[in-house]
Amino acid sequence: MTTCPNCKINLGLHVIGKRADGYHDLETVFLPVNDLHDELEVEECDSLKMTQEGIVLDNTPEDNLCVKAWRLVHEEFGIPPVHIRLKKHIPFGAGLGGGSSDAAFTLKMLNEMYSLGLDAQALELRAAKLGADCAFFIQNRPAYATGIGDVLTPIALDMSRYRICIEIPAGEHVNTKEAYHGLNRDLFGQPRPDLREAIRRPIEEWRHLIVNDFEASVFPAHPAIAAIKEDMYARGALYASMSGSGAAVFGLFEK
User: Which residue in 8, 68, 88, 229 is the catalytic one?
Assistant: First the structure.
């Protein structure tokens, strides 16, 4: 069985505060982007195997989230070993959710291959154990997210009129801990603009309404990322932003 796990972008990202468990409560809107995707194949095998191609990852095959997804399902349902082939096109560590998407799509494929009968909610609960935004890729539709990114409310958002352009500065990588460390903690606990209301406004107004909190901490340390955002506006983007904690920047252009 083969499929193409797609990436996501964040329309706005508010970091609400730090939790007792060390994670942070967030508020964001996830938007799936189908044009940029990986290639994933899963087939039954005598022993568990993981083959990686394309972009070279910074982890071992055993640590890949796809393997962790299989282990999670195997421990619960006793499914047989599989050979997972993953060809990476989505850059990792870029705020695009590529690894989370791969894991979620692996869960969906195993559910179908072995007729496990898990509905979307059951799959989301299991996906959330693998990563904060894995659950989003189960239904893979625009969603307002809270909690650590795992509490999802589907929203209506028609982006058919717009072209999404994603770029990453060559050689740039943002350490997530670095991004969190530089956050403006004065915003924690303060009232924030409601993203659900903001995205209902004309897209030309988003530039002044929808903010990614991480830009304030990432841009000073990575001016090349900030420069791409400004360049997208210079090229006519209606809205541009960094996705997640970076380093990817996206622009929304009229088709």
Answer: 8
pLDDT of 83 reads 97
> Would residue 150 show up in a list of annotated catalytic residues for this protein?
no
E strands of 137-177, at which residues?
Answer: 143-146, 151-154, 162-167
| Ranges under pLDDT 50 in the chain | none
Give the rounded distance of the alpha carbon of 170 from its chain centre. Answer: 20
pLDDT (0 to 100) of residue 189 = 66
Residue 63 · residue 103 · CB < 8 Å: no
User: Which two three-digit tokens encode residue 5?
Assistant: 């796990």
How far apart CA 27 and CA 203 sit, in angstroms, is 19
Residue from 155, 149, 151 nearest 131 by CA = 149
Digit-coded pLDDT (tens) for 91-109: 988 999 999 999 999 999 9
CATH topology of domain 162-254: Alpha-Beta Plaits (3.30.70)
pLDDT given for residue 17 in this prediction: 83
Q: Among 38, 102, 133, 150, which one carries the catalytic annotation?
A: 133
Distance CA 168, CA 173 (A): 9
Does the annotation count 35 as an active-site position?
A: no
CA dist 4 and 153 (Å) reads 24
Domain 2-154 has CATH 3.30.230.10: yes
